[in-house]
Amino acid sequence: MIVELDRRGYDSLHAVENPLTSLADDARRTRQMVGQVEGPVVLVGHSYGGAVITEAGDMPNVAALVFVAAFAPDAGETLGAITGQMPPAAADAIAPDSDGYAWIAQDRFRESFCQDLGAEEALAMAVTQKAPVASTFGDPITAPAWRSKPSWYQVSTEDRMIHPDNERRMAERMDARQTVEPAAEGALVFAGSRSVGSLAEIDGVTPVAGDLADAAGPAALVGRALEEHGRVDVLVNNVGAVKQRLEGFLGTDDEEFEWALRMNFFIALRATRAALPSMVERGSGAIVNVASVNAFFEPDAGVLDYGAAKAALVNLAKSLSQEFGPKGIRVNSVSPGPVATDLWLGEGGVADTV
After folding, report:
1. Is 121 helix (H, G, I), strand (E, B) or coil?
2. CB-based contact 305:252 (threshold 8 Å)
3. Hey, which residues does 236 pair with through a beta bridge?
4. pLDDT, position 131
5. Is residue 153 annotated as part of the catalytic site, yes or no?
6. What is the Cα–Cα distance from 183 to 268, expressed in whole angstroms?
């Protein structure tokens, strides 16, 4: 989140180093830092941090609150009471030590708190976790800021430290301006096509009209996704076009080869070139090139220009994987055979032509 906000031009970002000795102490430290900022402040809290911004967010220059899978207690309510109403899946992974600090057991940290991370990163987080005094979970909220400040809530549907239904209940109770559940929303898809009528009927798809065969078309499609969402996580290069070459190699001229390369190779090349910079900047992303069995496994003289273009696409993917794999970008190719689409089965398609 910090990196993404910085990328979008927010240059006044601060993380509060809470003492974790009591809710009152953490709220006091948060108010001190908010007081150092000139202008409006948006407070963001995750997990226990939601209780802190609930208690500290009543300052005049706090413009809004954002709860990311976080506690949002009401007046007089404690974290322990909220947890007891709907115990989360990993409630028994937390235990106090001999000094009264509450820790997530290191051998259960990954499964309990960050199950989507790799083992090494989760281990580092487990060892360096900051443990609050256990009595903090019994500290009541005095005046919840979400009752007077605009608030947003993100529910984590696989959360194991706060029950997801508890998160939904708190979001509904605060009358959040917007409640989002990323896993429930699924992927946000941008699809480019010369005609977008059929795409507009598909839920979750944003159709973008344009000619991808034009040199500027692929970059315009990627640019639209970046403009609206600030990132492209997965690029699927699935444009394909084929014509039967019944006269074989000698009957296929340069223009026909150029057409096949433009449709089956250069569109993917240009889209990849447009999407890669943002992926490299974030250090993550995936590119999937849809090739064909005609590229290597089943070359066919009847579609030789199509097969040659798809073979070039497969080789491009291998080169990109070698260069950008170490930078966190996965590049793969899939090579399907005949599939039940208009390209193969429709009027004028391959099956109809043959």
Report:
1. helix
2. yes
3. 288
4. 95
5. no
6. 28
Angstrom distance (rounded) from CA 143 to CA 270? 55
Question: Active site residue: 10, 101, 153, 306, which one?
Answer: 306
Report H helices in 181-303. 182-185, 217-229, 254-261, 267-282
Q: What angle do CA 216, 203, 116 make, to 5 degrees?
A: 85
* Among the listed residues 147, 179, 186, the one whose alpha carbon sits nearest the alpha carbon of residue 164: 179
Supply 304's token pair. 């030789």
Element (H, E) at 290: strand 285-290
H or E stretch at 44: strand 41-47
pLDDT digits (tens, 9 = 90+) for 224-254: 998 887 889 999 999 888 888 888 899 999 9
* Interacting residues of 302 by C-beta distance below 8 A, sequence separation 6+: 244, 245, 246, 248, 354
pLDDT per residue as tens digits for the range 175-225: 999 998 876 556 778 888 888 777 777 777 888 888 999 999 999 999 999
Q: Which helix (H) or strand (E) holds 209?
A: strand 205-209
DSSP string of 26-39?
A: HHHHHHHHHHTS-S
Give residue 299's pLDDT band: very low, low, confident or very high (50, 70, 90): confident
**What's the CA gap between 190 and 172, in Å, rounded?**
30
9 band by pLDDT with thresholds 50, 70 and 90: confident
**What is the per-residue burial (b if ≥16 Cβ within 10 Å, else e) of 151-187?**
bbbbbbeebbbbbbebbeebbeebebeebeeeeeeee
Asked if residue 160 lies in contact with residue 115, where contact means CB atoms within 8 angstroms, the answer is: yes
Token pair recorded at residue 28: 């006091």
pLDDT at 104: 97
Cβ–Cβ under 8 Å, residues 31 and 59: yes
Distances (CA, A) of 53 to 66, 154, 157, 206, 268: 9, 15, 22, 35, 46
